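User: structure tokens for this one?
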Amino acid sequence: MTRSPAPAPAIFTEHLRKVYKGRAVVQDLSLTVGEGEVFGFLGPNGAGKSTTVKMLLGLVMPTSGEVRVLGGSPQDPEIRRQLGFLPEQFRFQNWMTAQEFLQFHARLAGMPHDAAQRRIPEVLELVGLGGRGGETLNGYSKGMLQRAGLAQAILARPRLVFLDEPTSALDPIGRVEVREIITALKAEGVAVFLNSHLLSEVEQVCDHVAFVNRGEVLRQGSVRTLLGAELQVEVRVSQLSPGLLQRLGQLGSVQVLEPAEGQWPGLHLVVPGEAAVPQVARLVAEAGADLYALNPHHNDLESLFLNLIEHAGEAQARPEPVAAASGRGGR
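Assistant:
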């Protein structure tokens, strides 16, 4: 029996590089994003994220390396018709009504007129603008404009959607609605390439993430793998005896905290998982100490992000070692 070939990834780059005026803003970027996957592309301002997205959309040519989108070149008009894009700095034709704006983008995408007429009310309802399509965009708030931009990004039922800070102007209800839209796109097999500074939201919707800084990938992988199963546990007790510290050290790594004025002695534990939390409480009781606080929490993307950027900055600031001169010196 002949096996059908595996589907091409939604995004594939290998050693992608872009140089502007002698400076590499993206360098050695290798990514793979599967079909139906939500991929978070994270980094500080100036990390090369926008330039990367422009190369993936075919708006900027790479200096070197390989880039394929939906199995083809992002320069191919047939590939581009299958892409959706919501830029962070959107500038829309504000003299148009929302319906006219979407009709315009439907024509750009090559949608048949009848299909567009059916689809436009659907997407307006989906993004929370149902019944507002007849209003001109210059009367929309920034949050409403962002919703309209999201509507045009998904209007033509793309296979791959690029969302750049899609919730920056939205209130908490709007952010929940966008997460629901992203989840629905994934369920339909649509890949989503998401750039956001709201890392708690990225953590909720993304399958994989890549952290970038100064044009380089610092780390990438599945959210589950990057965050791991470890728990961070803060413990406050009436007294910290050497015996208690030794027994807690058998559960994981222990760091004694400097007690602030008016606080009980404390320590920070890293344990393999939630099963260790009751053991901590039991060991404290067996040592004859009173337990005043036991606060477990998982790692999060924000802490990982800050740690990676901080260490990257330290490495870049560290002076290069001076190579030893070869041969023997002499007078």
